[in-house]
Write a structure and sequence with these properties.
single chain; about 325 residues; alpha+beta; Lipocalin; twelve-stranded antiparallel β-sheet; 12 strands; about 20% helix; about 50% strand; elongated
Length: about 325
């Protein structure tokens, strides 16, 4: 996630150069507007992937295992730890209604999510750094149509809509940007934006019930496209667009009842491939995640809570690589 700040630093340096070369400022101004239009597109489109818990999972506590165990150096490092510490995500998925008849199944589901990304601008030789906090709020509603192909194989077509609100807060502390603050303040920093996106998806799934529990394999392709509006970048916010593909396996091992509620041991492994553009934000075209933990079914008497749990997650192959402690809600 550092790329966002490096790109912004580059663009701000372009603005500074333009002020020193006023006769050709208009040429650079258009380039600068295009750069930040693209960055906003990537921010909204990339948030869709970060909010999808099948695509990536960030925990409530990060473990820097590379500091004490040398062979884990490739699993997490100081930069990826800082990336994950600066990024906070809360996502609450829930199922609204399910219809089922003759094997055909429809499910209406929703999600409320929040993401906060805190970063510092790394200006060389400056004692106090500029700071940025970007928050994104999401409301999501989707419907899935599942068709049985055989006893164990099903095909699911989905269509979802996302409404997002972005708020950027930038603290000018270094003095490096004082000359261009009147130009960028309220336009590319300390500003707000909205985006509405649609997400069609197609998933192929193979599932098996066992005496000990259940497991399944799946492959899901997602496409995202939307439109944006608001104060940022003088209203030139572009059209967020991306595509990603998730392939994985999940298993649920029954452990019996705890305090009258069914408990399970959960394990999963996924590979995620991301389209160019958005993939640059996490320095990878593909990455892997593995998760394992304990689930407790319906611990609270609310229809929208299927289960909760606690486990450990590994992200590998991206700028967010590392091991973290995670809390599960409605894991399936």
């Amino acid at each position: 996630m550092k790329r966002k700040l490096r790109l912004k630093k580059y663009a701000l340096q372009v603005v500074s150069l333009c002020l020193l070369t006023a006769p050709i400022f208009n040429v650079y101004a258009k380039t600068l507007q295009d750069v930040f239009c693209e960055e906003l597109e990537h921010t909204f489109a990339g948030s869709i992937i970060l909010f999808d818990q099948d695509a990536i999972t960030l925990g409530v506590h990060e473990f820097n295992v590379s500091s004490s165990i040398g062979r884990f150096q490739q699993v997490s490092d100081s930069e990826s730890i800082e990336n994950r510490k600066g990024l906070s995500i809360i996502s609450l998925p829930y199922t609204i209604k399910t219809w089922q008849e003759d094997g055909y199944k429809r499910e209406l589901h929703g999600r409320f999510s929040w993401m906060s990304n805190k970063q510092k601008m790394d200006w060389t030789g400056v004692p106090e750094q500029d700071e940025e906090r970007q928050q994104i709020f999401e409301a999501y509603l989707g419907i899935d149509h599942s068709y049985p192909i055989s006893e164990h194989i099903s095909l699911t077509a989905g269509l979802a809509g996302h409404l997002m609100y972005l708020k950027d807060d930038f603290a000018f502390k270094s003095g490096e940007l004082d000359g261009i603050k009147p130009i960028i303040d309220g336009k590319i920093v300390n500003t707000t934006a909205w985006s509405a996106l649609i997400e069609p998806s197609l998933e192929l799934k193979y599932a098996q019930q066992q005496k000990w529990g259940s497991w399944y394999l799946w492959s899901a392709a997602h496409y995202v496209y939307g439109t944006s509006w608001g104060e940022a970048n003088n209203g030139d916010l572009g059209n967020p667009e991306t595509a990603y593909w998730v392939n994985g396996a999940k298993s649920f091992y029954d452990l019996g009842k705890v305090l009258g509620h069914q408990s399970q041991w959960y394990a999963s492994f996924q590979r995620v491939d991301i389209a160019d553009g958005v993939s640059q934000a996490i320095h990878a075209n593909h990455y892997y995640k593995a998760t394992s933990g304990w689930l407790l079914a319906e611990p609270i008497q609310y229809d929208w809570i299927k289960n909760v749990g606690l486990g450990v997650n590994l992200n590998y192959g991206s700028a967010l690589k590392g091991i973290s402690l995670v809390l599960f809600i409605n894991q399936d």
